[in-house]
Structure formats: C-alpha cells, structure tokens
Amino acid sequence: MSGTDSAGSRSGTDSAGSRSSSIVDVKDLTVRYRRRGSLRRNEFTAVDGVSFEIGAGRTLGIAGESGSGKSSVARALMRVHDPAAGSVRVAGREVTTLRGGALQRFRRHMQMVFQDPYDSLNPRLTVGDNVAEALTAAGVPRPDHVLRVRDLFDRVGLPAAFTGRYPHQLSGGQRQRVSIARALAVSPQVLVCDEAVSALDVSVRAQILNLLKDLQEADGLAYLFISHDMSTLRFIADDVAIMYQGRIVELGPADEVFARPRHPYTRALIAAIPQPGVGRRHRRGLVGGEAPSAEAVLTGCAFAPRCPLATEVCREHRPLLIAEPGGHQAACHHADAVGSLTVTADTTVPHQQGRTA
Amino acid sequence: MTAILEVDDLTVDFTRAGTRTAAVRGVSLRVEAGERVGIVGESGSGKSVTAQAVMRLLPTTATVGGSVRFAGQDVLAYDAAKLAAWRGADIAMVFQDPMSSLNPLLRVGTQLTEGLRRHRGLSKSDARAEAARLLKLVGIADADRRLDDYPHAFSGGMRQRVCIAIAAACTPKLIIADEPTTALDVTVQAQVLDLLDELTERYATATVLVSHDLGVISSFCDRILVMYAGRVVEAGPTDDIVADPAHPYTRALLDSIPRLEGELPRRLPAIPGSPPFGDVPADSCAFADRCAYAQPVCRTVAPPTVPVGPRTQAACHFPLTLAEEVTR
Ligand SMILES: Nc1ncnc2c1ncn2[C@@H]1O[C@H](COP(=O)(O)OP(=O)(O)O)[C@@H](O)[C@H]1O
Ligand code: SF4
Ligand code: SF4
Ligand SMILES: [Mg+2]
C-alpha cells in the first residue's frame, strides 16, 4: 500500500523546483511485480524510487531500453497497476489512494496512447463509435455525440467521412490519430504516450509529432512521452528523464541533456541513434551488452558492467541522483568525465566489451 | 568484377479475388561482393516483396517478371533442390521478427549445426565447435552452454543475433536483412549493425539492408535505393544522396527525421498524406499528390529514370539537383 503523504525525499535528490505549477508531481514512486510462478511474497522492483514533475502544457520525455521501467511508471500513474510506494499528485490531488467513483473521475484527467492502436481500439466498432464510447464514459449526452466525434476527428486531422470505417481499414498513422481523438474525448489535462510513434514510418511519425505539438499549444495539455528514440524526444520534450534498471539516472531540461549529457548511458543512447549525413560506419557500438534483466540484483552502479568509465568505486557504491545548480540531475560517480567520451572510429568499444572473451 | 546479385526490371503482381495489383513495378539493382546496399521507403513501397522475390519466398498468388541472377545464374529458373542448396549456402535472409525464422521447438545449437553439417559437410563435433564460435562472434556470452538453450530463453536482441549467426553459419555471399533492427532497442540495433559490418569485413559478405528508416540505412550502406510505390525513385552512393538528394521524396524523407544536432524547427517537415494504396495510374508520378514540386506534367507523364549527378539516378521530371544548378 502506498503512503498517503510523501515523507520527503530520502535519496537526497530533492531539487529546488517549485511544486505549485506542476500538473503531475511524482515522488519516490516504486512499483513491484510478483515474480512469475511464485505464490508467496517474492517480488521484484521494476520502478525504484522515481521522482519527477510535469508542468502544465509541458512535455517530459522518458527514455531507456526495454525493461527499464518506463511503461511501469506510466501504468502506475494511470493506476492500471497500483504502485507499491510513493506519491502521485495530479492537479494537486493524491491519486494513489483513489477508489471507486473518485478513481473513475480521476481517469478523465489523464489518458493514455499506446504504441499499437490495435490494442486499444475495438476492432468490431467503427472508429467513430470507438470515439463515441469514450464520450459516453465521460457522460456526454448521446444526441451530442455525432457533432463531438466530428469535431474530434477534425482536431486530429481525419476527414469526417472516416468515422464509418473500421480500424483495419485505416493505415497505422490514421489509427494512431483515432486513438488520440479517443483520448481527447474526455478533455484530459495529461496525456501519457507510451511509444506512441515508435511503430510508425518516419514520415508518418513526423505528422503525429506535429499533431501532438499543435494539440498541446491549443489546449495546454501536459505529456508524459515515453520513447526509446532520443531524436524523437529532442523534438517533442521540454525535459528528459533517462531510466536504467528502474531508476532515473539522468533528468534535466532537454537542451541541457542533449548538449551536455552527464551519464554515460545517456551518451550511449544518443550515440546509438543513426543519423543521416553524420558519416557512416564503425561509430556505433558505444556500449556493449544488453540491460540486465529487471530482476537482476546488483551492488554498486547498475550500469557498471557496460560502462566505459566504470571504476572500483562504481562497483561498490551506488551513485545517488545529484542535482547541479541548474536542476540537471545525474546519478554517476564520474559525471564530469562523460563529456570526454568521444565517438570516433578509433575509440569504438567493441560490442563484446565487459564480457569474458 | 561480376556482380553477386543482378536484378533486372523485376515486377511482382499479386492476384487476390480475381484482381491483380502491382507491388513491384520494374526494380533493377546490382550488388557486388562485399557491398552494403540499402533499400529504403515507407511501408507498402515494395521493399519486402522485392527481397522476398529475390529469395524466391513469395506465395503462389504472386506473379514475378524480369530477371534475378545470382553469380550469373538465373534464380527464377531454380528447381526446389537447387533452391534448398542455394538458401543457406550462398544466400541467407534475416527478418524483423527473429521468431519467424527460428524453430521454437529446437535448441539453438541444433538449428545452427544443421546448416553447418548440410552445407559445409562438417562432422557433428566440428559443427558444434563452429556453432559455439559463431555464437561468440555475435556477442553471446557463455556460448558453449547456450547452444543447448531453446529460442525462448533468449531476449529479443539475443534472438536476432542468433538469427544472424545462423545466417552467417555458412558464410553466404549475400545476406538480405529485412528490417532486422526495427523491433530492437537502439543500443542493440547499433550492435546488430556492427555485427553485420564485421561479417562484411571478415568474409566479404555482401548485405542488402531493407528499412523504412533512412537514418539506419545511411549509417550502414555504401549505396542506397529509395523505393516509392513499387519503383526505385532514386539510387546512388549514400554520401551523394544524403548530401544532395535529387528526388523530392528522398529530400522529404531526410527532412522528416528529427535531428540530434542544430536548430530544431517548431514543426517537423512531414510528408503530407500517405503512400498510395494498391495500384497507381501508369501515366503519372506516383508521388504527385504529396509532392511540393508537382507540375501538371507530373500527372500525365510517368517520369523516366535519368542521371541526376555523376553517380546517381532519379525518376523525377524536376530533379532538385538540376534545379539548383540552373538557379546558381
Ligand atoms: N502476400 C501478399 N499478398 C497480396 N499483397 C501483398 C502481399 N505481400 C505484400 N503485398 C502488397 O505489396 C505491396 C508492397 O508491400 P511490401 O513489399 O511488404 O512493402 P514494404 O516492405 O516496402 O513495406 C503492398 O501493397 C502490400 O500490401
Ligand atoms: S557510476 Fe560509474 S559505472 Fe555508473 S555510470 Fe557512472 S561511471 Fe559508469
Ligand atoms: S515527377 Fe513531379 S510529382 Fe513526381 S517527384 Fe518529380 S516533381 Fe514531384
Ligand atoms: Mg517491409
């Protein structure tokens, strides 16, 4: 069960940021899952003491490899899976303790858009009826539905004639527009986008990203935008959080994090993005290996086995998330050395790095 | 130097419920030994169908025209026995979903050694040793022991490496990889591309990489073909095309990628609309409805493929490279 009040930050990461202007305020969020196949108290921690804020009309991007806990954060915020500890305040209200009708009403403030709209749209209903369903849930009287659905389709750039089509008759980009329309039906203040553009072609991805920006400017929506693609985040996010093994290892204003990453993992995520015209070849493998399974238990820094900067202190002491004066936080003993990591043909770390040869 | 792969005027039509749709409309490409060639385009542009036509993997509903030659031989004329010997020994394919080419019921080691024994005639113990070496080569730790694992015991990225190890097992002359990294984390994607690079360096394996992502394609390939609605609309060396795209579609694809450096636009230059669904009119440019440079002639005459630079060709009435020369 979650605490009703945030007991203050134990990890020493409290930044000076004010909480008043935040629409989403998350403190020490912890999510646990039961280990598969086990009956008794045998859980692993998928999200471990994560804190962040999102201001109204702003976008927090979360990046990290699969299994790092990004979606678990989203599900805990949405109360799809109840957090084990920590506090989540949305528009000033603690939501981890909401139940019944209050929980239903809260869901109107916060909506979610997924990677594959197929998962969230009902294939047997027309896409217009899919959106109308959400209107019913929001208590919009039935006679108003036709107009409201048209209006929503218009806002997401779909012709009104599309309301009569079924999900399978639309392209991936069009389906994603429908799920955005459906999310908007209840006039939420926060939209959680979990890899919402990752399955789309680059050209369609650009259209959807533009749409999300337009909607934000018009409505002051706040986004929690999850993506493993750092170039997408650079475009859409105001602030960026990098997750590794259930923890935030870096958090700061997007331009800061991209210009001056202070965690080697962030550096690696950026370096791994292939960009046209940057010159090709032999500049890719900045980090080797894969993220350890979420269930692995490590002492010291979880990134140490893959880190080109790792030293003895890293393997023995877990680095705390420490904020610089400007609010840019990083959890790395050698944060000041990250800038010296260069990516050139000569310094490429082989992909077997960190393994026994 | 003879080409490993020569595809000439390839066409593929699908017949469904009595109607015929053209998926590939005259694709030509040439791959030399050790070359890395990329095919890029939006989904539905015919990239996968082209790859599958080369591998002879299309269903019977497909009608294939044109020619496919592998090391000078007519692939479209291969009989079943010849095909089976050819696949795995000379050419291999890696798919987006590794599980589609792995057998979930067989240990990874069995799947690796099968090809080694059949195509390279290795003894059982030699094949096992070679299989372990290959798993190590693709970056899988504790390879000896992991040979006895089933595919489900590996993560997605690991499985894709296993697929590449299987593809590499017989040191084929050509690997065709269709979106091999699309489902993977970027860090793992980088490792998989490094691995394909390593195969080229070690064994002069040629690669045809298929992807919708021009970033991935341009960071890996020596040469690029840009496909749109079943045709190659621009082709040439990567550096030339990225530095100076001639076809408005190539330019638009490049522009729509958010950059990691430099000023960011408030809106990304997206390509309006979506690619044509099914057939496109023969006497027009298939891109005309989405093209910022379209003129009336684009809707009445299909643009021929012409040279647009010293080493590049494009199919456009108004190639951007030539237009710039005039205004300069
Ligand atoms: N087995 C099939 N039967 C009928 N049509 C197909 C089949 N496979 C692909 N197509 C069609 O061929 C066209 C090209 O598809 P594809 O090669 O898969 O494009 P890409 O790989 O570029 O995304 C599409 O219109 C697609 O719907
Ligand atoms: S604390 Fe050490 S191991 Fe961890 S990221 Fe920093 S340098 Fe690498
Ligand atoms: S032929 Fe015309 S419509 Fe087609 S790409 Fe060129 S300018 Fe655009
Ligand atoms: Mg494809």
Characterization of this structure:
- The complex is a heterodimer of chains A (357) and B (328).
- With 357 residues, chain A is an alpha/beta fold.
- Chain A has 2 domains: 254 residues, P-loop containing nucleotide triphosphate hydrolases (Rossmann fold, 3-Layer(aba) Sandwich), CATH 3.40.50; 68 residues, no CATH class.
- Chain A contains 11 helices and 12 strands.
- In chain A, β4 and β5 form a beta hairpin.
- In chain A, α4 packs across α5 and α4 packs parallel to α6.
- Chain A starts with 21 loop residues before the first strand and ends in a 27-residue tail after the last strand.
- The N terminus and C terminus of chain A are likely disordered.
- The radius of gyration of chain B is 21 Å and the shape is globular.
- Chain B is built from 11 helices and 12 strands.
- In chain B, the strands form 2 sheets. In chain B, strands 6-7-8-3-9-10-12-11 form an 8-stranded mixed sheet, with helices on both faces.
- The model of chain B has no long low-confidence stretch (mean pLDDT 90).
- In chain B, a hairpin with a 2-residue loop joins β4 and β5.
- Chain B has 328 residues and is α/β, with parallel strands linked by helices.
- The interface between A and B is large, with 50 and 50 residues.
- The structure holds adenosine-5'-diphosphate (ADP), iron/sulfur cluster (2 copies) and magnesium ion.
- The site of magnesium ion has 5 residues of chain B, from α1.
